Amino acid sequence: MVDFRGASAGAVAALTDQLKANGASEGLAGELYSVAGLLRNDPALRRFLADATVAGEAKTGLVAQVFGGKVSPATADLLKGIAEQRWTGAGDVAKAAERLSEIASVLGAGDHRALCDELFVIGRTVNGDAELRNALSEPNRSTADKAGLLSTVFASASPAAQELAKQSLSGSYGTVSKALEAYRRLAAEVNGEGIATVTVAAQLTTEHAARLETALAAIYKRPIHINTVVDSALLGGVKVEIGDDVIDGTIATRLENAGRLLAG
Q1: In terms of C-beta distances under 8 Å and separation of at least 24 residues, what long-range contacts does 44-51 make, across chains too?
Q2: CB count in 10 Å sphere of residue 84
Q3: Whole-prediction pTM value?
Q4: Quick one: pLDDT band at residue 224, thresholds 50, 70, 90?
Q5: Quick one: average pLDDT of 167-186?
Q6: CA 68 from centroid of its chain's CA atoms
Q7: Interval 189-202: pLDDT, tens
Q8: How many CB atoms lie under 10 A from the CB of residue 247?
Q9: CB–CB of 119/1 below 8 Å?
Q10: pLDDT in tens, 227-255
Q11: How many angstroms from the chain centroid is the CA of residue 6?
């Protein structure tokens, strides 16, 4: 997930607050994502909007000229906000529009934890299916065709999950898998939570999962939502991944470490 710095970090925070205050109307996420694509493909427009020497009135005027009558009032209001903000670099303008589209999808979902779970399942499915993964990365296959494939495979997913899955095809993350993981983290973060991937030898009971979430919340000083992977090869114990942190208490790892000690 993109980390904004300096003026851009403040701009994205202000625009996120604006989006949360106004709410995510139907179609907002899709419109913002289309705008992000236009900005990615128009470096001159990006540079103009990021140029600190250009008056704010000129920027908002150009935004109104380019997008007037083509987007909803909610989208137009956010684009006006983008034009009024200060940016660290021109590239951040397009990335900010993309981030706002992602946040709009999360807000529109309602149940962000359910969305985290859906994105986790979609990501695991893509990573575990070589044929699907290759089809989604095929350069000669159109984005529309790939989007149709995702709609077919994940037809039972919520509208928000399907929207984000389609966005993963042509955003700034490089691969579908990276995009889906970023969206999962964002769905938690927008709602003040962290996200953990927990790998265990057998499925956790509801009670055990709740206890683990409570323990992790005490460590990280905020609520933590967990997604679980079952891997019988671990034999027992638990492995927790939160961002760059890895807590590995699995029996398989302990045995491996013991084997190294004996071999050494």
Answers
A1: 46/90, 46/91, 46/93, 46/94, 47/90, 49/82, 49/83, 49/87, 49/90, 49/93, 50/87, 50/89, 50/90, 50/92, 50/93
A2: 16
A3: 0.87
A4: very high
A5: 92
A6: 28
A7: 999 999 999 999 89
A8: 14
A9: no
A10: 999 998 888 888 899 988 988 877 666 55
A11: 21
The answer to whether 83 and 59 have CB atoms below 8 angstroms apart is yes
- Which one, of 219, 220, 214, 165, lies nearest residue 187 by Cα? 165
Q: Which residue has the tokens 């979902």?
A: 109
What are 129's two structure tokens? 């299916």
SS3 41: coil
Angle between helices 112-128 and 176-189 (to 10 degrees): 160
Half-sphere exposure of 48 (CA within 13 A, CB side): 13
How far from 105 is each of 54, 58, 78, 157, 261, CA to CA, in Å? 32, 30, 15, 13, 49
The structure tokens listed for 102 are 């992602």
Residues in Cβ contact with 117 at an 8 Å cutoff, skipping those fewer than 6 apart: 227
Distances (CA, A) of 94 to 28, 43, 46: 16, 9, 7
Alpha-carbon span 112 to 153, nearest angstrom: 22
CA distance 184 to 115: 8
SS3 call for 6: helix
